[in-house]
Design goal:
single chain; mainly beta; two-stranded antiparallel sheet; 70% strand
């Protein structure tokens, strides 16, 4: 018979049985392909080519896997296309005006999200973000290689984002994710609002 006070309790105090909590702080880097939506300027649609987006975020997790945080992203893309216009009467003949140029959107935002557990190492990410966006457009219009006019706009607007992704836990403090994101900005200068469809990858480090 062994008295309770004399029993060996080292087995459940061992590090081998210690339950370690995942890090609650996380830094994430993301890279995504951007499909910009068309926007209207002076009654005409402007089309844009596929661009890229770079992002950096900080997240603070809670015990229920919800999180809050903030970050910034920078996306760059090109304008490319043409408009068919009609000369004033009495001639009224059609002619083509080409346009091309660069555009970018720098955004600063706060985030609110939730990670839903699907398995031991896979989770579903849902995230909403809101903040401010700084737009920069530099687009030139030409007719028969002759300059017609230029569109130069730098303005601040409201920025929003909705994200859905799959999170893969590669180690206790390292995660990778595949995601789809719909984000956009409100009106900027004479330009209508614009949204973006993004498909990207993200890597995150906990501490």
């Amino acid at each position: 018979y062994i008295e309770p006070e004399d029993a060996n309790t080292d087995w459940y105090e061992s590090d081998a049985f210690e339950i370690k909590q995942d890090p609650l702080n996380q830094i994430s880097l993301s890279l995504s392909l951007v499909n910009p939506g068309d926007i209207e300027s002076q009654g005409k649609d402007l089309e844009f080519d596929t661009g890229v987006d770079f992002g950096l975020e900080y997240s603070r997790f809670f015990t229920d896997n919800s999180y809050i945080g903030g970050g910034f992203s920078y996306k760059t893309f090109n304008a490319s296309g043409h408009h068919i216009l009609t000369s004033p009467p009495p001639l009224s003949y059609p002619f083509k005006v080409n346009y091309d140029g660069d555009a970018s959107l720098l955004s600063f935002y706060g985030t609110l999200g939730q990670k839903w557990t699907l398995s031991h190492r896979i989770g579903l990410l849902t995230q909403a973000s809101a903040g401010i966006g700084v737009s920069d457009y530099d687009i030139k219009f030409t007719w028969d290689e002759n300059p017609v006019h230029a569109l130069n706009i730098s303005d601040t607007s409201f920025y929003y984002s909705l994200l859905l992704g799959l999170d893969f836990q590669l180690s206790r403090s390292w995660h990778a994710a595949l995601f789809y994101e719909l984000d956009g900005r409100s009106e900027a200068g004479t330009l209508d609002y614009q949204n973006f469809h993004q498909f990207g990858v993200k890597t995150s480090f906990g501490f």
